[in-house]
Specification:
Layout lengths: L3 E4 L2 E4 L4 E7 L8 E7 L6 E6 L6 E3 L7 E6 L4 E6 L8 E8 L8 E2 L3 E6 L1
Parallel strand pairs: 2-11
Antiparallel strand pairs: 1-3, 3-8, 4-5, 4-9, 5-6, 7-8, 9-10, 9-11
Length: 119
């Protein structure tokens, strides 16, 4: 079982920055692909970024490319999402998720952290 706890959300003006953190419990963090997703009010949850378990290969949604950076510290069992040049449309609850090597989809989810970007 993996537990995920996000932190770092808050209120920021457009153009500002935030860094989200996701601390995980359990073993074998380095064997999990980690992802960030978000859900805005009235919308479905959407993919933001992932960091693969094997080489740390990253992947981003087109809407955040060049502005957001996902990174991981396997020694601290933590994944981060650095968000720069924030826009009001980035306002959402951001969720951290983990997918094991044998999992077909993200299996473990955090409780979410609110990010609000004011114009």
């Amino acid at each position: 079982q993996v537990q995920l706890v996000e932190s770092g959300g808050g209120l920021v003006q457009a153009g500002g920055s935030l860094r989200l953190s996701c601390a995980t419990s359990g073993r074998s963090f380095s064997s999990y692909t980690m992802g960030w997703f978000r859900q805005a009010p009235g919308k479905e949850r959407e993919f933001v970024a992932t960091s693969s378990w094997n080489r740390g290969t990253t992947n981003y949604a087109d809407s955040v490319k060049g502005r957001f950076t996902i990174s991981r510290d396997n020694a601290k069992n933590t994944v981060y999402l650095q968000m720069n040049s924030l826009k009001p449309e980035d306002t959402a609850v951001y969720y951290c998720a983990a997918r094991g090597i044998l999992d077909s989809d993200f299996r473990y989810w955090g409780q979410g952290t609110q990010v609000t970007v004011s114009s």
